[in-house]
Specification:
The protein is mostly helical. It contains 22 helices and 2 strands.
Length: 425
């Protein structure tokens, strides 16, 4: 009993100092216990996180970094249940979360195959990490409450964004006026909070049901999924221009070339194919999708005889718009079908004798290649005829016209054949 009393007194003194928020006194107290300084430091960090005191926490972490006690500087790890960033994520202490993340505290998911190296954008291989795996001593397979609490912490949208927002490339950028280097851009290109949210939403769906049927925590997982869906819409809401929306939705970390033949999906394709309704129904997403359908605004918007709609008196603006759209369809539908039947086959066959890329390289990618050739002083012959047909081929709206025309033609022929057969009988 006499051996435990001093230790209890020490803990009581440390707790009192933390409650008083005396930064200097806390640091002096931890530093005075050199034999178990690391344990006292971890205890202080954990208690300050519980109290949600980011100012004092930042001060203690800064001192711990100087003494190599934080994970970013090679400090010892701790048990999963004592991971302070796990607590911060569960309670949504965002400022504490940011402080801890800056000093190397992490949660590790079961899907991660290896720790990132320091030169690849993460702070250290010795970061605190929450392991979402089966622990032989602590974890029980049927403990759904514990599994949910882990998932709830790992699905915190603030934490999912920290890898990107707190990246060292941005920290360096705040201290200098230089642009991001190519290496930093390549690293950031592999970090996508939106992809992480998509993954968590899929995990939430899988956790709704288990081998026994519906999970008892089904409503809780659905609540987490709704928060994640709201976060994806919030990202588009924060965009200040369609260029930013396009950058987010066009992102594909596995795209290593400029053609249109990619095995992996872009963000907008993932959202569309996996049925993320809140994101797809967002006005910025709809605007982006329409621009994409019209070839990023490259479609010919000239409307023949549009002055007729403007001269008709007592016609509402909605009726004028519909009339102009009908005139545009009268012009472009026959033109596109005739071009598809009588021009595209010859253009494609002829292109096979040249480069054979008219079907796979978009006008935007071709323009980027030409600019690169100009920078390298490489002159290439311009082919206006092929550029015209390339532009029309890569406008999705113009590709849909012949597609649906063939379907309508098939239905008409099917109806005629059935009708003719019925009359002959």
């Amino acid at each position: 009993m006499s051996m435990r009393q001093p230790a209890e007194n020490i803990e009581r003194v440390l707790k009192k100092l933390i409650e008083e928020r005396d930064n200097e006194a806390i640091i002096n107290f931890i530093d005075s216990h050199s034999s178990d300084r690391n344990e006292k430091f971890k205890s202080s960090v954990h208690q300050l996180t519980v109290w949600n005191d980011p100012e004092t926490l930042q001060s203690i972490l800064t001192w711990g970094e100087e003494k190599s006690l934080t994970p970013a500087t090679g400090g010892d790890g701790c048990q999963d249940k004592d991971n302070p960033i796990l607590l911060a994520c569960q309670e949504d202490f965002r400022r504490c979360m940011g402080c801890l993340y800056q000093h190397g505290y992490r949660m590790k998911e079961v899907q991660d195959e290896a720790y990132y190296e320091e030169d690849k954008g993460c702070v250290s291989q010795r970061s605190y990490r929450m392991k979402e795996v089966k622990d032989e001593t602590d974890y029980e397979e049927d403990d759904q409450v514990r599994q949910f609490l882990r998932f709830h912490a790992a699905s915190n949208v603030c934490y999912l964004s920290l890898e990107f927002t707190e990246h060292k490339a941005f920290q360096n950028k705040e201290q200098s006026t230089t642009e991001l280097t190519t290496e930093e851009i390549d690293i950031l290109d592999q970090i996508d909070p939106l992809r992480k949210v998509f993954k968590k939403m899929k995990d939430a769906d899988s956790n709704v049901e288990d081998f026994q049927g519906s999970s008892e925590l089904k409503s809780n997982y659905i609540g987490i999924k709704k928060k994640l869906e709201a976060f994806t819409g919030g990202i588009l809401t924060q965009c200040r221009s369609m260029h930013e929306v396009k950058t987010i939705l066009d992102h594909n970390p596995e795209d290593d070339d400029d053609d249109e033949l990619d095995d992996a999906y872009t963000n907008w394709q993932v959202a569309l194919f996996e049925g993320h309704k809140d994101l797809v129904s967002h006005p910025n997403f709809q605007r982006y999708l329409w621009r994409k359908m019209t070839g990023d605004g490259s479609i010919n918007k000239e409307i023949p005889f549009k002055f007729l709609a403007d001269k008709i008196p007592n016609l509402s603006s909605t009726s004028k718009f519909r009339m102009k759209r009908a005139l545009w369809n009268i012009k472009n539908i026959p033109l596109t079908i005739l071009t598809f039947l009588f021009c595209y086959p010859f253009v494609v066959v002829t292109d096979f004798l040249r480069k054979g890329d008219i079907l796979f390289v978009s006008p935007k990618a071709l323009e980027a290649r030409r600019l690169k050739d100009i920078e390298n002083n490489v002159e290439k012959q311009q082919t206006g005829c092929f550029d015209y047909f390339r532009k029309r081929m890569h406008i999705p709206l113009f590709r849909m016209i012949p597609y649906f025309s063939t379907k309508v033609t098939y239905l008409i022929l099917l109806f005629v054949s059935i009708w003719h057969k019925g009359h002959s009988m």
